[in-house]
Amino acid sequence: MKVTTANYGDAIVVRAAGRIDQSSAGEFQKKLTDLVDMAIGSEKQIVVDLSKVDYISSVGLRALMVANKQAKPKGVTIRIASMQEVVREVFSISHFDKVFPTFEEMPKALQAVSALAAAAYTDED
Amino acid sequence: MRIRFWGTRGSIPTSMNADHLRDKIGAAVRAVIEAGGDPDAALDALPFHMRGTYGGESSCVQIETDGPEYIICDMGSGARRLALNALGKHGPGAPQVYNIFQSHVHWDHIMGFPFFIPAFIPGNVIRIHGCHDELEMAFRRQQDNPSFPVPFEFLGATIEFVKLEPEQTYQVGGLTVTPFRQLHAGDSYGYRFEKGGKVAVYSTDSEHKLEDQEETDYFVRHFRDADAVGFDTMYSLADATSLKEDWGHSSNMVAVELCQMAAVKTLCMFHHEPVYSDAQIDQVLAETRRFEEISRGDGLPLHVVASYDGLEIEL
Ligand SMILES: [Zn+2]
Ligand SMILES: [Zn+2]
Question: Is the ipTM reported for this complex over the cut 0.90?
């Protein structure tokens, strides 16, 4: 699993790639919680781009939930975008789709953050 | 070895009310009329939630072997029907030995005992096994004044409490039994039962997070190659990691992952959330089976069933 980040206006985009499971969830969680701290400090929002993630296990989802618990009380929303079909199914089976706002495409997730974030994203891609 | 489920509901017994039952009958009647032909065949073809019910008794599971002694996990409200069945089979005049294994002494797991008729009948031997120091106190206390009219001392059977140690192996009723400690407020214990090459594991009221590899390995070791595992799948993963985190119960997804790691053959979803309707449990079952397919990888298929009051599984 690999995690990269990018900033678009007031959105911090987290791009994960590969499998988020037992072997990588710890690293994923550390990265997420650091980014949530950053988002809280800079009044930004988080969008997690899962387009390159082939699979997420229960520990991977748990990592997202840990980050969400840290983010939500401070006004930071974690949005999930571009899930592959299998990952989308896992989100539905786990009911994580009831906890996290999910978006089919990145531009829509960024629009939900702000017009500024959406514009910055469009300019770059 | 055969597993008989007498109570499969978590936390508190529940039942359908008149409206729920009317809705169920209405939907079944309409579907049978629409199908036409033989009504019994049409009824049998309906999904389980339309033609049956998961039931609402709290935890009680029997493990039957060809031996004469009873092996029972937990004394939830389902124990009442088990007792009636046993008395119907042997009659009240034929003393039996009942070996009971307690996961823990939360109320939903002991509340059937005051209604366990064999306990009233002299000649019966009831051995209540468990790893908790409070085992005997909890059973006695629930029958103390003013909670129940019949005090424990009044019970006519010979009742013994047997303290077990986790990780130790015991021979009881012709079975090899190994208790192991689980993750629940005040602790709970799972039991691995083995006989003639068959393995059944009873593991309820345990909250698995799978974050700590050593802890995960411990459970995988106790589940290893089991023919069937009864497992606490009370909550969705989202609930188990947020609102209901540290409430001591697990999810269907964690159940599948643990059983896959341990190469278990059949997962029996157990300790169902009392607010779930039959249709909801059916849906959770379908989703759990789908998750099993998604997460299987190169491993062997894991058969998934949702236990219900009255289910029998032959191993
Ligand atoms: Zn319970
Ligand atoms: Zn409990």
Answer: yes
